[in-house]
Amino acid sequence: MGTHEVERASTTDGLPVSPAIFPTLEAEQVPTQPSLVDARVVFLCLLTILLAVAAAFVARILLHLIALVTHVSFFGRFSFDADVAPAGNHLGWWVVAIPVIGGIIVGYMARYGSKAIRGHGIPEAMEQVLLNQSRIPARITFLKPISSAIAIGTGGPFGAEGPIIATGGAMGSLVGQLIKTTAAERKTLLAAGAAAGMAATFGSPVSAVLLAVELLLFEFRARSVIPVALAAATAAGMRRAFGEPFPVFAMPILDAPGGQALTAYIVIGAIMGLVATAVTRAVYAVEDLFDHIPLHWMWWPAIGAVAVGVVGYFAPRTMGVGYDNISRFLSQHPLAAGTALVFVGLKFISWSIALGSGTSGGTLAPLFTIGGGIGAALGVGAAHLLPAAHVDPRLAALVGMAALFAGASRALLTSVVFAFETTLQPLGLLPLLGGCSASFLVSCLTMRHSIMTEKIARRGVRVPAEYSADFLDTVLVREMMSRAVRTLRADDTLESVRQWIQTRGPGTSHQGFPVLDDAGALQGVLTRRNLLDPDTAGSKLIKELIQRRPSYVYDDLTLRDAADHMVRHDIGRLPVVSRESRKVVGIVTRSDLLKAHRRRLVEQEAEAVTWNRPLAAPQA
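Given the sequence above, the corresponding structure tokens read:
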């Protein structure tokens, strides 16, 4: 009978290895292992560098546009001088009307321009990455910065970094749509534009790359990280070329914290995790309240702006970008604890109502301001309660600033590195790492979604929360393949094979059979359907039934390679060939892929039993 069992052959198992093989096997369909980078990545790198230069100019223009709107709105003069803030106005109660006018204009732009300009930009960019293959409408490229400049310039309590990040991402997406790119390449361009915008604003290229990885790319691959990193570095270099080499939030060099102080900073970080949960829930509670207002959403930004104006009358420093407030908390003379908490409370009221109304603005600077103020207040309290610990309120403010953002956004590494890059405070790294990690832990325990993902999660969008190696990419084919393979000889007749199948012997129930020639070389694969087709004469030779080149996989490739190859060629099984012996040594099927996943689940169940905890349920 023309069937036999092929055992695994290699140079290490003592079996003879024959070099004879079907001469065209090298040209057959076998999975290829792509290189980490190629010429296309080089092209993307050049493209992202040019994109970063453009994003740096756009960031600069937006900052001056915000300044122009501020000058016109609060001081009645035409100027692009960026060193301006609404706090110096003398409008009295008329200050309430300015944000309302800005809210009306933004609402009008959102209704008749694009609804996508509402919000702080990053969740919307995440949604486009996850659902729309990173395609952002071209009009967002100019509508977002203009609407943000109006909202912030008329007193909106937002930072400029969120709109700049969103605009940079929109520019990258637009470039990816104008030229021929894949969805993965457009995502890289979008992330590169966003990272460039952040780096151009704060001079923080490393944290910009981390932000892209943690919130936009949802992966860490050389093909995407390298272009993004080059874009961030270029944008940061452009900031220096514009004459701003200094850190955004300059701090004096502080003393190294001792063990007690470090413990205090970690506790402050944990408290900020609770604050992050409260802030996130409050923001979306306000947004839910606006959903019940019996007016078209176009008018909501104007309604929210009333709160901005009223709070701004009593606390003018709550209006505008407020980077100077962060610097005050980090300076040598921070505010008293009570004063800091009052200011933070007013800032939070103004910001949460404005953001919940759906106007155009960001979250980074407000979170840094709120976190810095609470951290400074907690630092003052710790310094009084534990004088021997030598807790520095300035360092506590730095930890609070970064920890609140880490807990609210779940961007842990971004928060730590950002706080360092914007202050160049080397002795703050250890407290930052401890405080942000504590905040991240508490946030994960008390809140399901972050402030960045709650909005799109409510729309049914599944946002990846953890990035881990593909399990199938960690298992080799040789580990899961079936080693005993029923094969057919190429020169056997179809009738003899049909008689063998009718005997219902071992292996006759298989759905696929590799076909070998006399030298043991793979000729193709036939299925039971091919063999039992009544329209095919039994006198035919097996090799005459082969209609396409054999698809196979090497035993040293991964199950991911095998699975992708199956999908690509619409087949359910692959012969496995030894790269050394060039012989068929097994077969891998879709069932083997499921068995591999079953092994993973067994390991997870064993871990759950060991730690006496329930298995995690899938997220909605």
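The first helix runs from residue 39 to 75. Try to locate this feature in the token string yourself.
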